[in-house]
Amino acid sequence: MPTVAPVDVDGFVVRAGFLKNCAYFASGEGGIILSERGERTLQPHKAGLLAAEPARDGTALITSGDDGRIYRSGTDGSSVLVAERPRKWIDLIASGPSGAVAFASGRTAWVRLEDGREKEFVHERAVGGLAFAPKGLRLAVSRYDGATLWWAGTDGAPVELNWKGAHLGTSFSPDGKYLVTAMQENALHGWRLADGQDMRMTGYPAKVKSFSWSVKGRYLATSGANAAILWPFSGKTGPMGQTPLQLGTRGDNLVSAVACHPKDDVAAVGYQDGMVLMCRFEDNAEVLLRRPGKGPVSTLGWDADGVRLAFGTEAGEAGILGLAD
Amino acid sequence: MMSATQDARTQIPVTVLTGYLGAGKTTLLNRILTENHGQRYAVIVNEFGEVGIDNDLLVESDEEIFEMNNGCICCTVRGDLIRTVQNLMKRKGAFDAIIVETTGVADPAPVAQTFFMDDDVRASARLDAVVAVVDARHVLQRLEDTEEAEDQVAFADVILINKTDLVSAEELANVEARVRAINPYAVLHRSERCGIDIAKVLDRGAFDLDRILSLDPHFLEHGHHADECGPDCDHDHHDHDHGDHDHKHHDHGNGHHHHHEDDPHSVKSISLRAGDLNPDMFFPWINQVTQVQGPNILRMKGILAFSGDPQRYVIQGVHMIVEGDHQRDWKADEPRESRLVFIGRDLNWDVLKSSFQACVA
């Protein structure tokens, strides 16, 4: 039977997950709760925390806030200032290879490399999302009317991917062959990077705000419908012409967060009413992990072994769901 | 696009301040922030201006107009506001209301539409009112020079005619008449240095269907009744007769109401009336009108009587966005009258009037 260990968080849970064995919960009120053996709260930001992203090597949590600062907080309780843009609200961050951190505010994105060098990338219109490619210092910036691929370490010419409309959150497929964006409209857009082929994934009743790649990048699980929608990416043409899987269908509730299991073809699915289900791709078998609560599930994150799942809601409910017997 | 309103209790109220540079927006904003009312505000500004704003939660937000991929040219939203409101919702406990201060040249429509078209914003925030601050000394020139100034007046629910101490009584009367000619339905106040009871600016519920109580011009106007029209005043907008002899309700002797009407591109208001309407005719009609003429319709409001329906139906809209709902039973002593008002540019009054009449039950 799954177990639930609640964790006290004082506000909207912006991000929850694991740094090695340590669970973290980043609150919109500014606190970062670390839970391993006992709990401790770090408060690096002066006020609100807007975004949080684990470092690639899993040793630290990168956070940004409305104080214009970006901090790198370790499981040892240390918080180091990475960068600062006074008076800007930094609401987008991405962590890259070799300690690189990308962040953005308004129309500008920056990359700070581990050696302290910074590069600035200016766009004509608002930046909607950031993602590093799985390999190399390549940064994707989703923006109004498309996305731009920048080389963060060198001065190579950027690649422009154009598609009309506002592109928000973005993600590379784990094999680096595709870039996917969530749009202001209720749709996903994708590009096959080899040839710039557009892919349109539509039919959502709500905006897609959470996406997660399954083991080996075979599926992209997404929120925004009354089931988790999983687009197949295993074939040569990605999801084009294929029907997505629908997991955890509920008649009266939308999926608000998804997280694919790190080892098996299983996804954790969080809903607007706070419920969390675990669903198997193969046969749609479901296990209830958490009953409905006070607010929409805002974040889900597995540990590396896939035996514990950290969750958080917009109403400040949070905890660790354990699958081990 | 008809839909019921969300539960207002869980939505954070949003007040939008518009007005030309120098009209006094920031002065009004600082008055709101410093009055001892126990409210905590999150303030969204377009740029940090010369005048400081003393507030803990202050966000700078660069105007980002997002066009929607739905083929509708007036369906624009402010992407930066969507983002800022979503970020604010991560600190929901830190404030009670939001004030958006727009730039002097901002189009108010995308700002307002953001609160109706984006589902996430709509779930967490509701537009309370658009408040326009106009400078009594300069507004007439601004209205001549720019469409933005006209749009701001046309779009407003509350208009503060500021710096009244800098003009003569006659100049002020001209300003008010001109503002009224564009927007007879806004609540109009006069002020010096934005000195006004803040309660007249905040918590207006101007987009709240439950609070559409009356569509009489100048409804609930405080302070000066000198040039009010009676409730039956249906300014005939194609009437070029500036005299009073056939306007028995216009006995205030103010001839400036029709100023500027010969300019076909200026903003006008239109008031339509009828008795009971046939809903099967009305809904397709209003959808068609807002689809076709949406870009020209700035604001629309109505209280409607449908045949066989004991309840008042209230409706309001911005460009192509329309929302309507049943409000309450018609009272026994209340005449079942349908009223629909449009404020817009290049609207064909005759066509609207005749096609509306075809919806009569």
Question: What's this entry about, in short?
Answer:
The complex is a heterodimer of chains A (325) and B (361). Chain A has 325 residues and is mainly β.
Structure description:
The complex is a heterodimer of chains A (325) and B (361). Chain A has 325 residues and is mainly beta. Chain A has one domain (3-44, 128-322): Methylamine Dehydrogenase, Chain H (7 Propeller), CATH 2.130.10.10. Chain A is built from no helices and 30 strands. Chain A has strands spanning 3-6, 13-19, 22-27, 32-36, 38-42, 49-54, 60-65, 69-74, 79-84, 92-95, 101-105, 108-112, 118-122, 127-132, 138-151, 159-172, 178-183, 188-192, 197-201, 211-213, 219-222, 228-232, 245-247, 255-260, 266-271, 276-280, 286-290, 297-302, 308-313, 318-322. In chain A, a hairpin with a 1-residue loop joins strand 4 (32-36) and strand 5. Chain B has a seven-stranded parallel beta sheet with strand order 3-2-6-1-7-8-9, with helices on both faces. A five-stranded antiparallel beta sheet of chain B has the order 10-14-11-12-13. Chain B is of the alpha/beta class and 361 residues long. Chain B has helices at residues 25-34, 79-88, 108-117, 119-124, 139-145, 147-155, 169-182, 279-293, 349-357, and strands at residues 12-18, 41-45, 57-60, 65-67, 76-78, 97-101, 125-135, 158-162, 187-190, 267-274, 297-305, 311-318, 321-329, 338-345. Chain B folds into two domains: 8-211, 3-Layer(aba) Sandwich (Rossmann fold), CATH 3.40.50; 266-357, CobW-like, C-terminal domain (Hypothetical Protein Yjia, Chain: A,domain 2, 2-Layer Sandwich). Chain B has nine helices and 14 strands. Chain B is globular and about 55 Å long. Helices cover 25% and strands 25% of the residues of chain B. The A-B interface holds A 11-12, 14, 28-29, 47-50, 66, 87-89, 91, 106-107, 125-126, 128, 144, 164-166, 183-185, 206-207, 314 and B 48, 56, 59-60, 62, 64, 66-70, 77, 79-80, 82-84, 87, 89-94, 118-120.
